[in-house]
Amino acid sequence: MSKIQKALLAGAIAAALLAAGCSGEGADAGAGQEAPAVEAFAKGKPLQASFADSRLSGMKGVAENGRLRLLANDETGEIAVLDQASGEIWRSNPAEADADPLASGINKELLSSQLQLDFYNSFGQISSINSFTDSVKHKQLRMEKIDGGVSVTYQFGTAQKTAEDVPLRLSAKRMEELSAKLDNTGKRALKIAYTENKETAVFERNDDALNGLQLTRALQALETAGYTPELLEQDMAELGFTQEKAAPRVFQATVNYTLEEGSLLVHVPVGEIRFPAAYPVNTISVLSFFGAGSAREQGSIFVPDGSGSLIHFNNGKAKYPAYQQMVYGSDQTMERIEDDAREQPVRLPVFGLIKEKGAFLGIIEEGAAAAAVKADVSGRLNSYNNVYPSFYVINKGEVTLDANGQQRSLPKFQEAPMKSDFKVRYVFLSGEDASYEGMARYYRSYLLDGGALAKPAEAKAEDMPFYLQLVGSISKKKHLLGIPYEAQVPLTTFKQAEDIVERLQERRISSIRLKYDGWFNGGLDHKVPSSVSVDRAVGGAKGLESFAAFAKAKGIELYPAAALLVARTTKGFDESDDAARTLRAVPARVYPLDLALNRRDRTQEPSYVVSPRFAPSYAGTLADSLKDSGAGGVALTDLASQLNSDYRKRDQIDRTESERYSLDALQQFRERGLSMMGEGGNVYALPYLTDVTHAPMGDSSFKLEDEEIPFYQMVVRGSVRYAGRPFNLSSYTDDRLYVLRCIEYGAGVSFEWIYAPNSSVKDSDYHRLYAVNYGMWLDKAAAMYEEVNEALGPAGQSPIVGHEKLADGVYRTEYGSGLAVIVNYNAHPVQAEGRTIEARSYATGGGQA
């Protein structure tokens, strides 16, 4: 390609980039957020101390209440909380950070940082700055007292130019042009700044020489020679490199610390995260080393993976990846999901750290939908064990442009920052509460007091729930005279469902909670519920009314199921208007899974992610229909488990706003008096749900993790009934282990069935329904339910008040009724609490055993 062609290509790309609204100037990324000039930042007056503590040299007391004292250092930004109940001091940064024998360079400086910002340049490349390296060291920190605490504002970076402002490469011709405009001093400065590559005849920047006076002279030489951003663009196109446009990278962020009873509230206002439009902030990580445990300490990190998991301090697993998970799982408009996710999503926005003398629980109160929880152990980058939240501010996608047959991927940024502040409450626990059990008790009380969990009924013995999911009908390709057509194939009609229920009750299975899927708008992959029509294949509207009456007479809780956030078929759905948009400005698609390859099959028709704005109206339409049918409930297959954005241009809905749309939709069902069953059970949905299916029943088994715990169950039990995945479609190959997990975790038994033979799904898109004919499972289900019900029936729906590991594979669970259960997963008997627990068995005890 000639130089002229390259220049034309660069111009075409730049023009297309501007037309796409994703220019290197960051036009979409930082509106209203641009950082002020450096001169505008004022450090302010020194902080006046209200009290002092000899154990915290250099820190000034700024707030206190009956239990906690907050101290801060207005030179470094560090804070510390003294828990007067335990005597434990919780510091924002390790006291001995400078002496860490493992950390070096930027990793050592991060130990002294309170905030870290990751930001993009115009090419989508990411860089990091932190409050110590880029603010404190420049003395660009302002600390002011506020009611109940202190506010800290950081300015990151300066306007001073660096070696990155010097072009990365110059052609021989460009070097000759520039040198011709300089005196001998300027020519010498360029000669020192660049090294000629003899093979390519290109002058390459000599970074080792660009410091101090030599950097100043090189920058002056380029300015004198008239080197402009336009010339840089030409050189990048000709020589095939990318480089940020030379511009000051100055950022600001504020964090407020206040004491509230036994907790510290940390608040980062999104509106005060200021950044140049050309450098949008991707994430902000908050207090990465708060309370971090050293290599000499014993303790554990609590992470909210699935049901909950512990990472023990100094576990020697630094060779494995650090822990990182998005709260509430992935955003389907952001991720190109190619395989079936094996990890358990985070359902509760919490994290914590347990030491010998105390513990803290972190509760993400605002911005949870935009948060990720991260954790690591000592031995990788430093000598500390830490856990902290990181919040997304601006997300990035990519668009691909084609100019003169040449393709180039360019960044496309979210139009505006997240429309939620970020708040984290750190709760300090001592004594017996300094444990994951104490954390769960506190969080449960916190949710109950805030109305985010239903108040539990009086504990009493009652049958455990049995969760039965039936599939009504599916669509299947058939042929008539060689012509293909879509036919609706019934797998379980309403009448057949009645037969299954009666057979279950004959086997003494009680408290049946029946989720019936594939009953309206075209079966299992139904049309979106902008209107509702009960499928004739399963019995029609009259059949549903009759089935609802039957269920009521039999004491069965009926929950007809529906998806509101995914359009499983395009029939009645306009993807151009109604689908959520990705940052590439295309409708968000999810392709079906090929079970043999565990990959998405892009030869099949995709489902579409529905824009969250439609969820409330769909919910209202569906709720009215169900109320008229006599069904007393609804099963929500995605509304309680998924949160997706919509990046439609000039009408963006981010994840924090999406959560509000979901809450509005849940309210539609509540207003019609319908009971709600939901899959997954994200915490914001729990006040509305009576039951959770597909509840997390373990962690993701990340290699960094050491021990899975029933934290989720300890929080929700007594307010919400729950079960894990249906046994016959789960990863369990042994019903014994499934039963023991139900008993340990206080869960109901769950199955998914059809009435028709298994062969009915052959040659269809429903390969996951490979072993669901009810006849082959009836007796097994009855035996499993009988054992779980016998063990847990005395506890009823009382909460889990205690859980501990007694030995490898041996766990003790205590329920609020007084019942205690010891479960032995080992293939050999064990002794526990003076009793013999047989291999792969359990023993009960306590007041109501």
Rg estimate, integer Å: 30 Å
The residue ranges in which pLDDT falls below 50 over 5 or more consecutive positions are 1-32
Distance between the termini: 82 Å
In terms of DSSP E residues, the strand content is: 25-35%
How many helical stretches? Answer: 15
Name the helicity range.
Answer: 10-25%
Strand order of the largest sheet: 7-8-12-13-25-20-19-16-17-39
User: Averaging pLDDT over every residue, what do you get?
Assistant: 90
Tell me the number of strands: 47
Output the structural class. alpha+beta
Notes on the protein architecture:
By secondary structure, the protein is α+β, with helices and mostly antiparallel strands. The protein is built from 15 helices and 47 strands. The strands form eleven sheets. A ten-stranded antiparallel sheet has the order 7-8-12-13-25-20-19-16-17-39, with helices on one face. Helix 9 links the parallel strand 29 and strand 30 (557-562). Helix 1 (3-19) crosses helix 6 (229-239). The longest helix has 17 residues, at 3-19. The protein is globular. Residues 1-32 have low confidence and may be disordered.
Ordered list of secondary-structure elements with their pairings:
Blueprint: H1 3-19, E1 60-64, E2 68-72, E3 79-83, E4 89-91, H2 106-110, E5 115-120, E6 126-130, E7 141-146, E8 149-156, E9 169-171, H3 172-179, H4 184-193, E10 194-197, E11 202-205, H5 212-224, H6 229-239, E12 251-260, E13 263-268, E14 281-286, E15 293-294, E16 299-303, E17 309-312, E18 323-326, E19 350-355, E20 359-366, E21 371-376, E22 384-392, E23 396-403, E24 406-413, E25 422-429, H7 436-449, E26 466-471, E27 473-480, E28 483-490, H8 494-506, E29 512-517, H9 540-554, E30 557-562, E31 566-567, H10 575-578, E32 589-590, E33 593-594, E34 599-600, E35 607-609, H11 615-629, E36 633-636, H12 655-671, E37 675-679, E38 691-693, E39 707-708, H13 711-716, E40 721-722, H14 735-745, E41 749-753, H15 778-792, E42 800-807, E43 810-815, E44 819-824, E45 830-832, E46 835-837, E47 841-846
Parallel strand pairs: 26-29, 26-41, 29-30, 30-36, 36-37, 37-38, 38-40
Antiparallel strand pairs: 1-2, 2-3, 3-4, 5-6, 5-14, 7-8, 8-12, 9-11, 10-11, 12-13, 13-25, 14-22, 15-22, 16-17, 16-19, 17-39, 18-21, 19-20, 20-25, 21-22, 23-24, 27-28, 31-35, 32-35, 33-34, 42-43, 43-44, 44-47, 45-46
Helix pairs in contact: 1-6, 4-5, 8-9, 11-12, 14-15
